[in-house]
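Appendix B, example 12.
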Amino acid sequence: MTIADMVRILHAKILCGEDRLDTKVHTSCCSDLMSDVLAFVNEKTVLITGLTNAHVLRTADMLDLKCLVFARGKIPSEDLVEQADEQGLVVITTPETAFTTCGLLYEAGLRGVPIEWPESEARL
């Protein structure tokens, strides 16, 4: 899937990175807790969130993420969008809730970031 596909699926508005819409993405994660993103994301991916603060941008930079999707129609400040563009991120906003955003993308073939569970915390 490309980011352009995501924009179409989510009826999203592009805030920056129009020149990078052909970037392919294979996984996504959704969280408002950047500590969880840092703990579980280990590959270049898409972050779906409702947070519009600088922590999101720092997390994206640390993990070399490709795209930020702001759910619920959230729009970050112009400064954050400018910094994201300088980092090479595509930033989009969708009117959909985070849950619906994830569902629509999953239905279209985008999968979650695989998590390796320790033996002591194996999934039931």
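Strands lie at 13-16, 27-30, 46-49, 67-70, 90-93, 111-112. The chain has five helices and six strands.
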